[in-house]
Structures are given as structure tokens and as C-alpha cells.
Amino acid sequence: MGASSTLPACHAILREVFGYGDFRGPQQAIIEHVVEGCDALVLMPTGGGKSLCYQIPAIARQQAGHGITVVISPLIALMHDQVGALHEAGVSAAFLNSTLSGEEATQVEKRLMRGDITLLYAAPERVTTPRFLAQLDFLHERGQLSLFAIDEAHCVSQWGHDFRPEYRALTVLHERYGSVPRIALTATADALTREDILERLQLQEARQFVSSFDRPNISYTIVEKKDATQQLLRFISREHMGDAGIVYCQSRKRVEDIANVLCDEGIAALPYHAGLDAKVRQANQDQFLRSEGVVMVATIAFGMGIDKPDVRFVAHLDMPKNIEGYYQETGRAGRDGEAADAWMCYGLQDVVNQRRMIDESPAGEEFKQGLRGKLDALLGLAEATDCRRVRLLAYFGEASQPCGNCDNCLSPPEVWDGTEAARKLLSTIYRVQQMGGISYGAGHIMDILRGKSTEKVAQRGHEALSTFGIGADLSEVQLRGVLRQLIAIGAVTVDAEAFNTLQLTDASRAVLKGEVPVQLRASVSSPAERKARRGSSVIGAAAKVPASLDTEGQDRYMALKAWRAEVAREHNLPAYVIFHDATLAAIAERAPQSLGDLQGISGIGAKKLEAYGDEVLRVVGGA
Ligand code: ADP
Ligand code: ZN
Description:
Layout (H helix, E strand, L loop, with lengths): L2 H14 L10 H9 L4 E4 L7 H13 L4 E5 L3 H13 L4 E4 L5 H13 L4 E4 L1 H4 L2 H12 L3 E6 L20 H6 L5 E5 L4 H10 L6 E4 L7 E7 L3 H12 L4 E5 L3 H13 L4 E4 L5 H13 L4 E4 L12 E6 L6 H8 L9 E7 L1 H13 L4 H19 L4 H8 L11 H4 L4 E3 L1 H18 L5 H8 L5 H5 L16 H13 L3 E4 L5 E4 L3 H5 L6 E3 L5 H9 L15 H21 L3 H4 L2 H10 L4 H4 L7 H17 L1
Parallel strand pairs: 1-6, 1-7, 2-4, 2-5, 3-4, 5-6, 8-13, 9-11, 9-12, 10-11, 12-13
Antiparallel strand pairs: 14-17, 15-16
Helix pairs in contact: 1-2, 1-3, 2-3, 14-15, 15-21, 18-19, 24-26, 24-28
Bound molecules: adenosine-5'-diphosphate and zinc ion.
């Protein structure tokens, strides 16, 4: 079977089953490779379109008589919706996990044995049970085991917070069913994790497909923390009222507090963290997925596998641990390709907290050193005065040009030369330590620099220092900026074990000598300004009702939305599983008179046309 005979079939499946006109990025190459029965490792950012990379081969290979595809996924809470989405597209799918009753599980097993399923989703702990393996043996002996898709494959690796020991047992697939092709997929880009996946799943021979990790529709903004809660409120009320979003916080308590504050302000917010009862967590997740415009306030426990396409913003109220985490979390915005925001607010205290957590962790020194390096890279991103995206992509090994769609590109920050200020700060730390043999925290050092005769300054005799008052021309905000930058470049460390005192490092000397220039942002432009500039960028801001529609079109759109909500409720599925917003907008724009007019609209496959076509015509006709 050559590529020429399989590819038209795959394109037909894309069009007829999923209703899409073209493959995205490397999808075609991946699908071609897997349909032929070869192994693959797919690295694609969140929202890149990984699902089709195994769903289309599953359908094509079953049509060719190869039997079922088993999808291994840790996302038990999402399997129901994933399978529901395939049903809507007319694909036979099922799942096996602990949420099913014994009776329901038996029904699925019977269908499996009959060959009545194209894609079976199962959790790794289920796949490796003797009972399930016996069923796979049965299918395999009859040539009816077509493909294994290992989703969220980074779960096999210890290098990340998603590690699942059950994933290690998946080597059984290769050992027991060596002739069955496997495709492993992940959105985690770093080299260490990739190596680990290849080794643990014995995929060394597999072809690797590494996509660009750029998400051009996401606009990155990082602001200095002043009053985080108020800043968040302003951000949401100015730019995202009524939008679905995720707000990440460091602690469970903060999650609860922020969710309450948002609710008080009339924003539909729900909390999510590991301390909540499992039922409450599931209910909140369902509401986030099924209702429009819900803001989930969460710890990093939330988000893996969340495939809600219309999340319009991801906000970080506290600094994450590293760029990988930041990128994965922000990647949950704008999966539908429409404009979305990644907004982070960070301050000196975040840096201090993260350092302390590393210092106090029981891990070995070498491992801690690695964590510190990752934190520093994130600090560098936060303090950057040039394009955020260029820095992000460079971190993942990709070269790029300034993006025109991040805060620094949209309103280039005024930069001032902070070298002199940095030298003043460092020499104050140095002199204070020389004088009394002990170090002090940021507040005291700044008081000395600014020439404030506080009680503590007077008591310690620090008014006598030659650096007393030499920074009086600088504001406290400016000095804090200098300090953050010095921490970011490693010229100052904060000693968590000694009351967060500031310490000099080996790197301090070069700055003191004036060999390393220190560039600082002078001010952060106001959000209003930012918004205005963005209007002229390539990607327009998403509106709740597409602005491209005329008044009648908007009426049709609203009527379609109401109809969709009803269907989604009846089917117990999220609305986007029925049709994406973009599909509704395209229908509203076309004002279809016949089923023929609906054909070719992105997102309307054959099954959906048959199931919903007449109703859609009725809805837009009566609007
Ligand atoms: P990932 O799993 O990589 O995060 P998904 O598989 O969930 O991404 O796809 C993200 C979104 O993009 C989904 O809503 C999907 O329907 C859509 N999509 C994927 N491939 C295409 C395509 N070729 N054309 C149009 N939309 C696509
Ligand atoms: Zn940029």
C-alpha cells in the first residue's frame, strides 16, 4: 500500500468526518506515516491538533480491515466528552475506566470483541490488567488490533509534575504486540522529557515529528505586581468580561480567596484544587466546560487535557516554577486559533517564594541546581524588555523574529540604563555586610540607599555608610526593579534560610565593575494603550458576537448559540463538541437556504450535516 492510495482516503476522512478542508502543520505527514503502520513520536503544542493524528489513522486503518485502535490516556474525567465528540462526528468510540459500572464495562467489552469499535479510550492502569491484555490477545490473534495511541506521553517521565508510574508499565504493549504500530503524543517540548519518553516506551526507532511551538494567536503580557487582585480585576473587566478563562494561583487558599473576590465582582468564577472533594472538582470542571464564560481559578492541578477551544485568557497571579510549566498552562488559551491572552503578574516576593521552595525541598543539590536554572530562565523572561515570544521560542530551541503580538512588541517599554543604580545597590549590600558581618533584607537595604533614617537604620549605625542616601534620586519602585533584575541575572541571591537576606554572588563582581550593563523597564504602559495598539495588529481581538456580521447575521448567530446550548444539554456534552463558535459564525454569515449551502463550512462533517442540517436551516430561517 503506497502513500498515494492511502492519502486521498485520509483527506476524505478529514473532510467528510470532521468537516475540515485542510490538514494543519505536520498533521498530513504524521497521519501518512502512521496509516502505513509505522511508529511515531509527536511533539506539538497544546491546540496544535494532535487528536486527528491518531483518530484519522484509526478510521483509515479500520476501513482497511486492521481492527481497533486503543487510545491510552490518563484523563479519565475527560474521556466521556472525548468519546462524545467522536459520536457526534459519526465515529464508533467507547471508553473503559473506573467511572463505568460493571455492567457498562461488560457492554463495552462485548462491543470490543465484536469489532464494533473504532477507537477505545482506556486509562493505563486498565490497559495493563491481565483481563484486558487477554482481550487484546484475542483481537491481536485475529489481526484486529490496529494501533496504540499513547496520549500525554510525557506522563511516563519523572521530569515534570504529571508523572504517572502506571505509564511505565506500557512497555508491555511493545513487548507483547511488537507488530502493532504505536504513536505517542505530547505537548511537552524539553529535550530531557523527550529522551525519557523514547527510552521508557522503547520508541527509539520511531520517527519523530517536532512541530513549531509557536502559538501566534496568543498575546503574552507580563506585568509588575502591585496589587495583584486589583490588577487581575482590571485585566478581566477591561478585556475579558463574559469570557471563559483560567486564573492560576500558587496555593489552595489563594484559589479560594480569588474565586470569592471575582464572584463578588459579578464574574462567574469557580475554584479548583487538589484539596477539594473529587465530586466538587468534577462538577466545577464540568461547569467550566459546559457553560459559557466561566473563569476557573485553580492551582496547577487543573488543566491537563482540557480541550475547551474557546478559553480566551490564562492569567498567572503568581509566578510559575519554570518556562515549561508557564508555556503549557498558557497554551490552554485560544485552542480555536482566535485571539487570546496570556497574562502574568509577578513581583519580588514571587522570586523569593520560589527560591525558598527550591532551597527547602528535600531533593539533591544537583537537582536543585537544575531547578534554580529553570527559575532563572523564567525570571529572565519576566524581566525582558524585548519580544517575549522570541525568548519563549528560543528556550525551546526555535529561532524567530519579534512577534508584534506581545506586550513588549505592542508597546515597547521605555528602557533606562540601570547599571549605575545596580552598582549602588550591590555596594550597599557589600558595605553593610562588611560593617557588621551580617546581611539584611531588601527593605532595609533600600532604606539605606534612599537615605531614610528609620529606627533600624539609626540603631545599626548605617547612616554612617558611604552609600547612605546615594540612591535618593531613585524611587522605591525603580530600586525594586533593579533588585529583581539583579536576581534574574544571578548577581544577588535571596537567602531563604536567613530571613530572606540579600547576598552577593560570584556574578556580582562584573556588575560592580560596570562590565555587565543592566537594562530596566522605565514604566509599564497602561492597558488602554495596549488594547488600542492591538487593534491594528494582524490578529484582531475576539468579540463575543463576531463583528464581521451585519445585524441580521448577529441575530442568526445568537439564535444558533441558543439552539446549540439546548442540543448540548440534551446530549450531556459541552457546546463546542456540537459546533465551534467559528462554525456558528460561518453559518450565520452564509445565511444558508439549503443543505447544500451548509456543505463545506469548516466543522460540518457528513454526520453533523445529516443530524443537524435541517434544524440549523430552521433556526437561521426563523431568526
Ligand atoms: P491538541 O490535542 O494538540 O491540544 P486538538 O487535537 O484538541 O489539539 O485540536 C485543537 C483544535 O483544533 C480542535 O478544536 C480541533 O477540532 C481543531 N483542529 C485540529 N486539526 C484541524 C484542522 N486540520 N483543521 C481545522 N481545525 C482543526
Ligand atoms: Zn513580541
